[in-house]
Amino acid sequence: MDLLSLDATAQAQAVRDGRVSPRELTEAAIAAIEARDGALNCVVHRRFERALAEADAVPAGAPFRGVPILLKDLGWEQAGEPYAAGSRVYEGVPMRRDSYGVTRLREAGFVFLGRTSTPEFGTTITTEPAATGPTRNPYDPAYTAGGSSGGSAAAVAAGMVALATASDGGGSIRVPASACGLVGLKASRGRVSSGPALGDSWNGFSTSGFVTRTVRDAAAALDLIAGFVPGDPYDAPALPGPLAAEAGRDPGRLRIGFATAHPRPDVAVDAAPAEAVTRAAALLETLGHEVEPGFPEALGDPRFPRVFGAVVAAHVAATVENAGRIRGREVGLDELEPHNAALVDAARRHSVTDYLLAAQWIDAFRRRMAPWWAEHDLLLTPTMAVEPFPLGWIPSRDPGLAMERTAHVVAFTSPFNATGQPVISLPLHRTAAGLPVGVQLVAAPGREDLLVRVAAQIEAAAPFAHPAM
Questions:
Q1: Measured in Å, how far apart are the chain's first and last C-alpha atoms?
Q2: pTM of this prediction?
Q3: pLDDT band for position 1 (cuts 50, 70, 90)
Q4: Which of 87, 117, 148, 201 is catalytic?
Q5: Which of 105, 109, 136, 384 pairs with 367 at a CA distance of 20 to 30 A?
Q6: What does the alpha-carbon distance between residue 91 and residue 416 come to, in Å, rounded to a whole number?
Q7: In the chain, what percentage of residues exceed pLDDT 70?
């Protein structure tokens, strides 16, 4: 039995059936990391001896007993383990407490093998941090694995683990999922607590989640970490039941709008992403859905990238301030990568009033987007506006060009971080060179259940191959 070709749900079942032990699963994942990570550079911190000891001690009743997992090294704090967030500024300061998500995963029986690479503070869409070097795509090592959850996506696509944690503030679950041929589910705002360290992240733009190889794993994993915690600033609409139970349920006949081009004239969409949407729309039509061109008018507002960027810059400046407090010494701009130094500098030149006005603009944008979903069930778009790109395409030494290209990549993803809607990226296309290209489906707030039903329907009709393993 090839343990690592199984998804997490099947691995957990194999443990329950007595076909494999938690230690054997953990040893298999450790061997895969040792064999494959040298070429990909996606695991930046290893804790193998502790993981083996923990595998032996996982309670028998835990639903994912002994299933190995990797944690993204941005958020997902684990007590006693080093934390860097893709940067040199933390200097290996260990975390003092677990995030709520880590606590819930431990209670579910997962075994933590280590931490995965991320760009500095998660502010760009490729994982090439100066601190640890570039993470490479398992499909072609000359290409990016995406960002900011690129380390997690590379590890899952390469078959090191069945799933890994991720987070998404502008596309950072969905873009790596697209780049690495994976499923990436971004939850509704408030579905997952950011505590105890934060009430929210990036003004509510960012949320925690996973990159997985199957829809059912994406649903089951989100079930584990979802839930309001007293003190959270907001909650998501209630789901009808566990998301894992939605995989396989008939979604009914849905009205789905789609866009192969971006409504903003400044955003050119490459051929492969446009073709991916065209093919996905045709597939959805054969599955019985009503599919037609259409999108919310507000999606074309040319002011969005600037306002979104202003909010993010303010939060990055706060992150840098907190990093200085954690290590006991102020962080200088010269210690940051150029694009982050530029973001922090820009934020410091704006007032609190400027920030609040930007946040209020986003509030109005969210209200302008919302009515479209009263007439439609889902929106289908490319995940990335550009085709898979090589390492170095987002230049580390040219902040202006780096931010311009990052904004281009996330033109379809970041608006739905602003609105807080649930979105799933699915690997439905390949370039002529065999590189994955994802499409995303966007639902109304709180409708992760609908996304899981449709995604599972698509997965059954057009099974996702994972040749990178």
A1: 15
A2: 0.98
A3: low
A4: 148
A5: 384
A6: 34
A7: 100
